[in-house]
C-alpha cells in the first residue's frame, strides 16, 4: 500500500471519531481548530518558500507554491479531481466537480467529518499564506452538487502560469504525517498531554489496522519532523 488521499482522509476521519467518542460536545470545536491549525501551518510553509524566492504573496504565487498534487495511485484508479474554471477575471471562480477526498470520506462513512474539514481547510491554508487574499470557500460537495472556490481580483488570465514551482510539492507520506502530528498537537494542547497522546495512539492503531503495521510505523516516524519550517 501507498500513502494517498485515501490514507490522509482515513486519519482525518479517525481523529474526528476518536474526538467524538472521547470528548463529546467539545469534539467539534477541537476538530475544527485542528483543521485550521493544520491548514495555517501548510500555508505558512508555502509563504516561507515564496518569500525566500522573492515572490509576491498573491494568489498566483499561492497556486504555484501549493504542496499538493494528485497521487499516482488515485490517478491510476480514475479517482482524480475534475475541475472547471467558471470565471477567470476579474474574480477567479473554480468549481470542483469530483474529488478523491469526498469519495474517501464517503468510503469511510465520515461525511460529517468531511463537511467540517472541507469547509475550513482551504481558507485556513490561505490564512497561513496571506490572509489578505480575498479567498472564499463558497460551498463544498458536502452541501451542494460541487465545490466552489472564489478569489476576488485574483489577477489571473489565460496566459497566467499556474504550474507548480520545482521542489514545492510534497508526497502523501508527508501530508499524512503532517495531519497526524498537527491534529495530535492540538489534541494534546486542548485536552492535556496524556489524553492527547492516548488519542493519537488510538488513531495510529486504527491506521495500522487499515493500512498495515509498516505504514503505521513509517507514519509515526515521519510525524517527528518539523512541519512549521519550510
Labels describing this entry:
230 residues; alpha+beta; four-stranded antiparallel sheet; 4 strands
Topology:
Layout: H1 5-23, H2 27-52, H3 59-64, H4 72-76, E1 82-87, E2 92-98, H5 100-107, H6 111-130, E3 135-139, E4 147-151, H7 172-191, H8 193-211, H9 213-222
Helix pairs in contact: 1-2, 1-5, 1-7, 1-8, 2-6, 2-7, 7-8, 7-9, 8-9
Give an overview in words:
- The chain has one domain.
- It is built from nine helices and four strands, in the order ααααββααββααα.
- The radius of gyration is 17 Å and the shape is globular.
- The chain has a four-stranded antiparallel β-sheet.
- The model has no long low-confidence stretch (mean pLDDT 98).
- The longest helix is centred in the first third of the chain and has 26 residues, at 27-52.
- It has helices spanning 5-23, 27-52, 59-64, 72-76, 100-107, 111-130, 172-191, 193-211, 213-222, and strands at residues 82-87, 92-98, 135-139, 147-151.
- It is of the alpha+beta class and 230 residues long.
- Strand 1 (82-87) and strand 2 form a beta hairpin.
What's the helix-strand series? Answer: HHHHEEHHEEHHH
Q: Spans of 5+ residues with little confidence (pLDDT < 50)?
A: none
Distinct helical segment count: 9
Counting DSSP E segments of at least 2 residues, the number of strands comes to 4
Q: Pairing-aware structural class of the strands and helices?
A: alpha+beta
What's the domain count?
A: 1
Q: Strand percentage, roughly?
A: 5-15%
Cα end-to-end separation: 27 Å
Sum up the overall morphology in one term.
globular
Determine Rg (CA atoms, Å): 17 Å
Q: Going across the major beta sheet, what is the strand order? A: 1-2-4-3
Largest sheet composition: 4 strands, antiparallel
Averaging pLDDT over every residue, what do you get? 98
Organism: Candidatus Faecivivens stercoripullorum
Keywords: Hydrolase
GO molecular function: hydrolase activity
Protein name: L-2-amino-thiazoline-4-carboxylic acid hydrolase
Amino acid at each position: 500500500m501507498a500513502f494517498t488521499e485515501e490514507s490522509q482522509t482515513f486519519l482525518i476521519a479517525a481523529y474526528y471519531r476518536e474526538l467524538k467518542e472521547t470528548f463529546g460536545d467539545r469534539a467539534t470545536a477541537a476538530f475544527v481548530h485542528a483543521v485550521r491549525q493544520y491548514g495555517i501551518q501548510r500555508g505558512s510553509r508555502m509563504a516561507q518558500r515564496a518569500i525566500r524566492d522573492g515572490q509576491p504573496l498573491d494568489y498566483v504565487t499561492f497556486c504555484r507554491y501549493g504542496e499538493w498534487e494528485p497521487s499516482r495511485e488515485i490517478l491510476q484508479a480514475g479517482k482524480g479531481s475534475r475541475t472547471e474554471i467558471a470565471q477567470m477575471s476579474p474574480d477567479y471562480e473554480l468549481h470542483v466537480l469530483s474529488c478523491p477526498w469526498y469519495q474517501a470520506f464517503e468510503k469511510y462513512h465520515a461525511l460529517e467529518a468531511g463537511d467540517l474539514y472541507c469547509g475550513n481547510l482551504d481558507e485556513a491554508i490561505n490564512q497561513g499564506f496571506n490572509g489578505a487574499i480575498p479567498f472564499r470557500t463558497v460551498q463544498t460537495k458536502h452541501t451542494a452538487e460541487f465545490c466552489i472556490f472564489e478569489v476576488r481580483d485574483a489577477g489571473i488570465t489565460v496566459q497566467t502560469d499556474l504550474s507548480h514551482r520545482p521542489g514545492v510539492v510534497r508526497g502523501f507520506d508527508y501530508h499524512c504525517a503532517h495531519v497526524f502530528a498537527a491534529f495530535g498537537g492540538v489534541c494534546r494542547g486542548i485536552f492535556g498531554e496524556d489524553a492527547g497522546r492516548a488519542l493519537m495512539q488510538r488513531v495510529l492503531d486504527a491506521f495500522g489496522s487499515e493500512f498495515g503495521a509498516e505504514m503505521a510505523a513509517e507514519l509515526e516516524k515521519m510525524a517527528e519532523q518539523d512541519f512549521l519550517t519550510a
